[in-house]
């Protein structure tokens, strides 16, 4: 499937309707961040309680789907926003910056809310991949839109910035798609049905119960990992390009993980792949039944040599993190791992499982010994934190907060929670503060 939309003045005008820029002194909590750009994606349709009652945010609240860009230079920040369709119902990885920071990529699992839409059922399936030009920090612009399979769950940008991988789950197929990006425009979309490449459904229901929730590029750019969370395993593929046509083949056998490996990351040296295993019960029909009350886990997978003729990846171990861990981040040196934990903030306030604090779990990774160890949990107030990232030097950790609890002040509402990383024999985190942003923040990324 291949399709690229022409950007008409009407479509572009609708997308830019919420654009605004402001130049101000950099907030003190960003002063030490090692990044030229910080990007945050926010969903305006959902509120936390939507997961329990399926009712969307009231239109009078004024929430919107937004991409916020903070460009930091010489102690000052330029903050700009652009209306871009997206959905918190996907994995956090619906946003990523190009390696050079000049383009942001966003995909939408669910489409834009129709006039008068009030419930989740009113939201159409999404099928678009957006490229936003960030070359002018104060004036982000929509550069291109590509059509991908419906219900895209996650995206990843190749290390050279020339391709975007997207996973989608249609009614009948789980798809891995490789989209060419060149000169600010999308090109060919190569689409691969995972069932035709050895990853098949095993139960009844849509796609035989197969769901792909995450995709990541190996640092070499030769391989991708796809998380199959409903089968508790990761599939690895090798990408080849012949005369402009992309193709994939399995890179070793799929590797079993802990329960519900929702997201994952390669280490910067390409030797390991780690998954954050949320642990949900997909047979449950209620929020209380689906969300686990035990700690989530991380799985550590040692990867075969890229040049091996008979690649065999190895699942080394699982380590407990905290309840309802969703996002995962790995430091630039590959020695620190963090999970962003929702804990009981996903439950309404009248639920006995509701908690006011979410948290971060910090772990150390010894790549020589293949050892992963949890060193601490760091609670903070806020609802549904999901995505997170270290800054470019690994001196800070940023985590999104979807919304605040009723009555919370601006320093406890939606935005980005910032921690300083205290390095040493036993690393720790020290809270810096919260960057206040519009409702619905669910992923963050940084670039030079």
Structure commentary:
The protein has 448 residues and is mainly beta. The protein has a single domain, classed as 7 Propeller (Methylamine Dehydrogenase, Chain H). Helices cover 3% and strands 46% of the residues. The chain has three helices and 30 strands. The strands form seven sheets. Strands 1-4-3-2-30 form a five-stranded antiparallel beta sheet, with no helix packed on it. Strands 13, 14, 15, 16 and 17 form a five-stranded antiparallel beta sheet that branches. Strands 5-6-7-8 form a four-stranded antiparallel beta sheet, with no helix packed on it. The two termini are 33 Å apart. Keywords: Plasmid, Signal. It holds the Pfam family Lactonase. It comes from Rhizobium etli bv. mimosae str. IE4771. InterPro entries: Host-pathogen_enzymatic-act, Lactonase_7-beta_prop, WD40/YVTN_repeat-like_dom_sf.
């Amino acid at each position: 499937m291949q399709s690229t939309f022409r950007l008409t003045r009407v479509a572009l005008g609708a997308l830019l309707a919420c654009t605004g820029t402001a130049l101000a002194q950099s907030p003190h909590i960003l002063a030490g961040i090692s990044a030229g750009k910080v990007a945050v994606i926010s969903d305006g349709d959902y509120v936390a309680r939507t997961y329990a009652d399926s009712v969307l945010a009231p239109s009078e609240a004024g929430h919107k789907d937004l991409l916020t860009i903070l460009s930091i230079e010489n102690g000052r920040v330029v903050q700009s926003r652009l209306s871009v369709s997206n959905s918190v119902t996907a994995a956090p990885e619906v946003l990523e910056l190009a390696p050079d920071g000049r383009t942001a990529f966003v995909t939408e699992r669910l489409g834009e809310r129709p006039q008068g839409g009030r419930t989740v059922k009113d939201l159409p399936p999404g099928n678009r991949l957006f490229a936003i030009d960030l070359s002018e920090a104060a004036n982000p612009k929509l550069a291109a839109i590509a059509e991908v399979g419906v219900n895209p769950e996650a995206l990843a940008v190749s290390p050279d910035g020339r391709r975007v991988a997207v996973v989608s789950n249609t009614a009948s197929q789980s798809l891995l798609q490789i989209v060419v990006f060149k000169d600010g425009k999308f090109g060919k979309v190569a689409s691969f049905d995972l069932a035709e490449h050895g990853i098949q459904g095993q139960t009844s229901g849509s796609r035989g119960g197969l769901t792909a929730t995450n995709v990541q590029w190996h640092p070499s750019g030769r391989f991708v990992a796809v998380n199959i969370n409903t089968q508790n395993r990761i599939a690895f593929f090798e990408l080849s390009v012949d005369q402009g046509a992309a193709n994939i083949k399995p890179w070793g056998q799929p590797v079993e993980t802990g329960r519900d490996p929702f997201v994952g990351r390669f280490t910067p040296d390409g030797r390991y792949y780690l998954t954050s295993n949320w642990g949900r019960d997909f047979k449950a029909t209620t929020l209380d039944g689906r969300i686990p009350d035990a700690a989530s886990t991380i799985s550590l997978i040692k990867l075969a040599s890229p040049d091996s003729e008979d690649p065999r990846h190895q699942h080394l171990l699982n380590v407990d993190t905290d309840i309802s861990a969703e996002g995962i981040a790995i430091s630039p040196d590959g020695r620190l791992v963090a999970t962003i934990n929702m804990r009981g903030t996903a439950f309404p306030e009248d639920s006995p499982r509701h908690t006011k604090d979410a948290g971060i779990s910090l772990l150390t990774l010894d790549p020589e010994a293949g050892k992963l160890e949890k060193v601490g949990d760091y609670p903070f107030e806020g609802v549904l934190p999901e995505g997170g990232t270290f800054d470019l030097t690994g001196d800070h950790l940023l985590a999104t907060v979807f919304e605040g609890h009723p009555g919370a002040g601006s320093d406890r509402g939606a935005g980005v929670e910032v921690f300083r990383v205290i390095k040493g024999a036993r690393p720790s985190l020290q809270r810096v503060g919260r960057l206040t942003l519009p409702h619905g923040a669910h992923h963050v990324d940084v670039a030079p």
